[in-house]
């Protein structure tokens, strides 16, 4: 039994000297205000995810929040990245892994410069979600894949004349709709009678809840079209006797073979099939609107572009400016 101050405590001591030493230590602690100290908390060790686990979780999130096409693009990019660098903890990813990935895309997968850049950017977005940035990896701007932005191609009037001359009535209306509205393929696929405002002469790009479809970036917009096209669309709907999709399958479902139809028309018209594609109608619409004097901000709104730079890509030089308009510059 050990007594220090007014406190008694039972301790184990081999002899009187050890007991005395223990008593003195307790008395010193008492004088200095000793209090029992709680045991230190153990900091939980943060588990570092492996690349495959992180990819699965990220793609699951993308699938819930983004469109199927976006999910497919990320899935392809991350699958290639996994094949390039193998499975490893995320914290072990280094700058060299990204440089090797760019080489893998070009040499192993035969990706174009633009596709290489897009997939590289997709992987960097994934890594950023886990606080792995270009700065932390010490990536410079020169480490990113480089590509040259090509000028959008448009249809010349002679090609359009040949193309539409080879169309049936239904085909002509479909591709006039592409050309004169500037809508994207998916926007045409899911356009319905509710998209049309005959009084205002406009087509609205809006969500189609019946088929679970939403516009790109979930951004709705309205595009004015010429009365002749609106008249043809009205006549088509009246003749059909019902609304629904503007250009559906025979069973009223979304039609996904517009490009095949376009290629078939080109073949009949004697136009090389590789020279026709759907986005070229959209590019032609945008360029002609700009040539027609519509201001950039308005055309940006019609096209649904996020920024003016995207619209300005379509501001191609007009090689057919007549002498009268050139003379007007100096008058």
Shape: elongated
Order of helices and strands: EEHHHHHHHHEEEHHHHHH
- Please tell me the overall pLDDT: 88
Strand segment count: 5
Give unreliable regions as ranges: none
The main β sheet shows up as: 3 strands, antiparallel
Task: Give a brief outline of the structure.
With about 325 residues, the chain is mainly α.
Keywords:
5% strand; 331 residues; elongated; mainly alpha; 3-stranded antiparallel sheet; 14 helices; two-stranded antiparallel sheet; 5 strands
Provide an overview of this structure.
This protein has 331 residues and is mainly alpha-helical. It is built from 14 helices and five strands. The strands form two sheets. Strands 3-4-5 form a three-stranded antiparallel β-sheet. A hairpin with a 4-residue loop joins strand 3 and strand 4. The relative contact order is 0.07.
């Amino acid at each position: 039994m050990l007594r220090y101050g007014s406190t008694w405590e039972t301790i184990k001591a081999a002899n009187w000297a050890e007991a005395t030493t223990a008593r003195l230590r307790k008395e010193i602690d008492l004088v200095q205000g000793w209090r029992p100290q709680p045991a230190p908390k153990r900091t939980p060790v943060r588990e570092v995810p492996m690349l495959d686990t992180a990819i699965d979780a990220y793609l699951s999130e993308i699938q819930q929040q983004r469109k199927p096409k976006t999910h497919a693009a990320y899935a392809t990019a991350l699958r290639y990245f996994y094949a390039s660098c193998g499975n490893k903890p995320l914290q072990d990813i280094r700058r060299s892994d990204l440089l090797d990935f760019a080489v893998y895309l070009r040499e192993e997968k035969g990706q174009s410069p633009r596709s290489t850049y897009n997939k590289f950017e997709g992987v960097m977005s994934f890594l950023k979600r886990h606080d792995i940035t270009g700065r932390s990896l010490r990536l410079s701007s020169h480490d990113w894949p480089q590509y040259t932005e090509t000028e959008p191609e448009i249809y010349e009037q002679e090609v359009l004349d040949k193309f539409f001359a080879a169309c049936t009535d239904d085909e002509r209306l479909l591709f006039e709709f592409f050309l004169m509205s500037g809508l994207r393929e998916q926007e045409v696929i899911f356009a319905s009678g509710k998209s049309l405002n005959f009084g205002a002469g406009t087509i609205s790009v809006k969500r189609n809840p019946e088929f679970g479809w939403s516009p790109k970036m979930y951004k709705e917009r309205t595009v004015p079209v010429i009365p002749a096209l609106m008249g043809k669309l009205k006549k088509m709907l009246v003749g059909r006797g019902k609304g629904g999709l503007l250009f559906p399958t025979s069973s009223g479902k979304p039609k996904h073979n517009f490009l095949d139809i376009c290629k078939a028309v080109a073949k009949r018209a004697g136009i090389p099939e590789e020279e026709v594609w759907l986005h070229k109608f959209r590019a032609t619409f945008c360029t002609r609107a700009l040539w027609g004097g519509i201001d950039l901000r308005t055309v940006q709104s019609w096209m649904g572009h996020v920024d003016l730079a995207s619209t300005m890509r379509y501001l191609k030089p007009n090689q057919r400016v007549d002498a009268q308009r050139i003379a007007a510059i100096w008058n």
